[in-house]
Structures are given as structure tokens and as C-alpha cells.
Amino acid sequence: MALFALGDLHLAFQRPDKSMDAMGPVWVRHEEKILKNCRELVRPEDTLVLVGDHSWGRRLPQCAKDMEFIMSLPGRKILIRGNHDMFWEPQKTEALNQQFAGRLFFLQNNFAAYGEYAIVGTKGFTFEGPFWIDRLTGRILDWDKEEEAHAAKLVRREAARLEASFAAARKAGYRKFLVFLHYPPTSILESDSIFTQMAEQYGARDVVYAHCHGQAQFHDSHRGLYHGVCYHLVSGDCLDFRPERILD
């Protein structure tokens, strides 16, 4: 049994206008890479956490083929909500879990068990600018303070959802945790955030996130060991759509 993670599938089987091919060579026919790599790596007894931005469909019927594709992947599939997952309204998580029971598990204000670990998570959020940058040095000179204040409200909302996920797992008796976010846990202005602090407070083994696209953004947040927690970036284009093994 092993635990794998991959983010940003950005499937568009019913939205050809949203094809990712124009985003660069790594995205060309990326669905085929996902299927091939998952079949090579993930066994039926394994768990695959998909870390947000699953489908471009705005409503569930527009995601039907995307969901069928995801369900065809090997292993138990756990889904985290991404910023582009318009089909998934937070208050409808329980309904989604009922509809897809035994095939997909939607993680929001709840948790999933993996051996002695609880898988907890939420979409997360982080401030992404706009920034004003010195073109010669690359140094950040200033940023939009109003957008930063708005982002802080969304961070607090998502932190409350992550706290609910931790609380549900602790109530069930779990004391070992694996944290999954769609957004990176810190902005490019931060070394610590409420998400890193929660991971440390609860003694999480790993924090896994996605959302960062392109070489210029692959190091916008922590990767590797930081304050005793191991951070993993699993954006599809970062991994060339090859799921990363998080835990055996």
C-alpha cells in the first residue's frame, strides 16, 4: 500500500475551449500522460490524492467525462478542491460524497484515513499580488495592499476549514496527520503562515500542495524539510504528470 499525490489535472473533455495545449509542451496531450503514469505507478490497493483543479466544467454535468476519467485511474481517489473547481461548492461536499460513494472521496471539512494517519486538507489560499518588481534586480518593491487584505480574509476562511478537518480527525482518535492544500502554504512574501503554523502545531508529517505553474513559480513556497515538516509541490506540470509517492 502506498500514498501518491498529483495536482492540476485541468481536464476538459467537455470543454475543448479550455484545452491546456497552448500552455506549453508539457501540457500537450497531458491526459494521456496522467493515465499512463498512474497505471504504471499506482496499484489498486494504493491511494491517490488529487490536489485540486480537476475539471474545467462549471457544473457537474459538464464534468461527467472528467469524473469518469478520474474514476478510471487506479487506486482509491481522494480529491481536494482547487480554485478552478467551480462544480464543487463547499456546502455540497457531503452530497458529492454520497453521489460518488465507493468511487471518489471529496475532502472538505472532513478527513480520510490512511493507515495510522489522517489525511486532512482544504483548498487553502495565499496572496498572489499584484506585485511591483524592480526589473533590474528582481526585488519586490511594493504590492497591492487592498488585495493583500482581501486575501487575508480568504486565508482565515480556509484555515478554519482546515481546522475543522483536523478536529474531525482528532475526534476519531487520530494523532498523525498528512496535510493537503491546493494553494501553496505561503506567499512569496512569507516564510511562515497560518497553514505552516497549523502543520507544526498538529505535528503533521507532510504538507502537499499544487497550483504553482511554470519554472518561475516552482519555488514560490517551501519544498523539502522546514521546521520538521516535509513540503511537496505536486503540480502536474512540475512533475510532468507523474504522481509523487508521499508515503508507503
| Average of pLDDT | 94
Strand content: 15-25%
Largest sheet: 6 strands, mixed
How many alpha or pi helices? 5
Shape: globular
Gyration radius (Cα, Å) is: 18 Å
As residue ranges, the low-confidence spans are: none
Series of H and E elements: EHEHEHEEEEEHEHEEEE
> Between the first and last Cα atoms, what is the distance in angstroms?
6 Å
Q: What's the structural blueprint in terms of helices and strands?
A:
Layout lengths: L2 E4 L23 H12 L5 E5 L12 H9 L3 E5 L12 H7 L4 E4 L4 E3 L2 E6 L8 E3 L6 E4 L1 H27 L4 E6 L12 H8 L4 E4 L14 E3 L2 E5 L10 E4 L1
Parallel strand pairs: 1-2, 2-3, 3-4, 6-9, 9-10, 10-12
Antiparallel strand pairs: 1-13, 5-6, 7-8, 11-12
Describe the overall structure.
By secondary structure, the chain is of the alpha/beta class. The termini are close together. The mean pLDDT is 94. The protein has 5 helices and 13 strands. A 6-stranded mixed beta sheet has the order 5-6-9-10-12-11, covered by helices on one side. The radius of gyration is 18 Å and the shape is globular. The relative contact order is 0.18. Strand 9, helix 5 (194-201) and strand 10 (206-209) form a beta-alpha-beta unit.
Considering the chains and any ligands shown, give keywords for the structure.
248 residues, five-stranded mixed β-sheet, six-stranded mixed β-sheet, alpha/beta
In short:
The protein has helices at 30-41, 64-72, 93-99, 145-171, 194-201; strands at 3-6, 47-51, 76-80, 104-107, 112-114, 117-122, 131-133, 140-143, 176-181, 206-209, 224-226, 229-233, 244-247.
